[in-house]
């Protein structure tokens, strides 16, 4: 735990403290931010308050007194529920506003780890509970230089594998051999392994109407053969297999033929335009020093698609935070599924991936955007035209 950094962040946010709580290892954010080892057996509730100034303090059960071992500050113990309530009241003495892993109306579900009853208990102890969402992204979503380097290296490998996957399909089609969505998925996974890349699941390899399902994933018993005249979408994400690895996540589309039909070409240009408008929104805000919030990036992409008559066919957020998990804990580019008011802060990365999904085919174009100290950039190749397979 970086106590000094947490206390500086609390002072900047005008908070009296950050109250961490867990029961049965429900909050992985707390363990990572505090630097507690994962895998501990936690059958009783513990609390740990990091104040804006002064020494932290904890409250643990007599059955599990070592729950917070390794952290600075004094510990109090409890056994009964009355002792717990009194111990919590003493711990929060002098605190008016404390952050917890809580999100009003569950606007940011990634940080909504604390149950409603515990929030009520803290409020009864005399403290106002506010969301830790902005604090969490400072300590969970910000990359190091090593993270960025690993992301860029993974990106070069993933882009090469993506090119080879489309090339493989073309070779099979020209040779008259059959190839399925699942076979392409397996090809990509094998190439990931040989490149020492790992992923949690995927990739998505989707033909025609399957590409209109944003989370379609072929399996051995659920797959389509790719044929001439088909539309093909590939969404792939992976990271280096080491502690500094963070994800690189992209989506590209192609047509199995000499020229894509005009409806596909039209929708591709609309999706690409929405992607580029969102990227421009981020870059201009960073260059001007204007505070940018996640929902504004979503608005930029969504308005572009709405103006062209496809608003009802774009039914997911524009982008998500990226980190050691492909869906990270930072700000999402979202004003549809949630209204994400978190700031887009330096040294974070997120996807921009607008899409239009019609009954016959779906098109999504995804890039990753890294925000540095003085600007923002797309970290890999951005698709400019339909891949002709």
In short:
Helices cover 34% and strands 20% of the residues.
What does this structure look like?
With 389 residues, the chain is of the alpha+beta class. Helix 8 (262-288) runs antiparallel to helix 9. The protein folds into 2 domains: 3-140, Creatinase/prolidase N-terminal domain (Creatine Amidinohydrolase, Chain A, domain 1), CATH 3.40.350.10; 145-388, Alpha-Beta Complex (Creatine Amidinohydrolase), CATH 3.90.230.10. Strand 13 and strand 14 form a beta hairpin. The chain contains 9 helices and 17 strands. The mean pLDDT is 96. The strands form 4 sheets. It has a 6-stranded mixed sheet. Strands 7, 8, 9, 10 and 17 form a 5-stranded mixed sheet that branches. The protein has a 4-stranded antiparallel sheet with strand order 11-12-15-16, covered by helices on one side. The termini are far apart.
Output the keywords.
six-stranded mixed beta sheet; elongated; 389 residues; Creatine Amidinohydrolase; Creatine Amidinohydrolase, Chain A, domain 1; 17 strands; 2 domains; 9 helices; 20% strand; alpha+beta
What is the ordering of alpha helices and beta strands?
A: HEHEEEHEHEHHHEEEEHHEEEEEEE
Number of domains: 2
Order of neighbouring strands in the sheet with most strands: 4-3-2-1-5-6
Largest sheet: 6 strands, mixed
Backbone CA Rg? 24 Å
**CATH topology assignment of the largest domain:** Creatine Amidinohydrolase
State the helicity in percent bands: 25-40%
The rough form would be described as elongated
Name the structural class. Answer: alpha+beta
For the record, the CATH architecture of the largest domain stands as: Alpha-Beta Complex
Distance between the termini: 50 Å
């Amino acid at each position: 735990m970086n106590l000094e950094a947490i206390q500086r962040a609390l002072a900047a946010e005008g908070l009296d403290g950050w109250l961490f709580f867990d029961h049965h290892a429900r909050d992985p954010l707390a363990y990572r931010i505090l630097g507690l080892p994962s895998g501990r057996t936690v059958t009783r509730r513990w609390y740990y308050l990091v104040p804006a100034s002064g020494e932290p303090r904890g409250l643990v059960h007599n059955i599990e007194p070592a729950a917070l071992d390794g952290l600075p500050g004094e510990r109090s113990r409890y056994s009964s529920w009355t002792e717990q309530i009194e111990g919590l009241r003493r711990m929060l003495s002098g605190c008016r506003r404390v952050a917890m892993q809580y999100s009003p109306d569950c606007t940011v579900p990634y940080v909504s780890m604390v149950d409603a009853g515990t929030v009520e208990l803290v409020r009864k102890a005399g403290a106002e509970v506010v969301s830790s969402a902005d604090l969490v992204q400072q300590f969970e979503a910000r990359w190091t230089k090593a993270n960025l380097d690993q992301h860029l290296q993974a990106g070069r490998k993933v882009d090469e594998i993506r090119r080879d996957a489309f090339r493989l399909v073309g070779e099979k089609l020209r040779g008259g051999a059959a190839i399925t969505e699942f076979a392409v998925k397996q090809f990509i996974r094998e190439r990931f392994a040989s490149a020492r890349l790992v992923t949690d699941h995927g990739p998505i390899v989707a033909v025609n109407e399957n590409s209109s399902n944003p989370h379609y994933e072929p399996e051995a018993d659920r797959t389509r053969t790719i044929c001439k005249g088909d539309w093909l979408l590939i969404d792939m994400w992976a990271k280096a297999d080491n502690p500094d690895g963070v994800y690189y996540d992209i989506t590209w589309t192609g047509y199995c033929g000499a020229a894509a039909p005009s409806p596909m070409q039209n929708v591709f240009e609309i999706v690409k335009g929405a992607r580029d408008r969102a990227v421009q929104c981020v870059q201009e805000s960073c260059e001007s020093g204007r505070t940018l919030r996640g929902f504004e990036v979503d608005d930029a992409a969504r308005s572009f698609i709405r103006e062209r008559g496809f608003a009802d066919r774009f039914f997911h957020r524009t982008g998500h935070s990226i980190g050691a998990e492909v869906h990270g804990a930072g700000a999402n580019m979202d004003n549809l599924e949630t209204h994400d008011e978190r700031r887009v802060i330096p040294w974070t990365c997120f996807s921009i991936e607008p899409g239009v999904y019609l009954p016959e085919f779906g098109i999504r174009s995804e890039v990753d955007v890294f925000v540095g100290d003085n600007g923002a950039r797309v970290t890999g190749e951005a698709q400019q035209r339909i891949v002709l397979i």
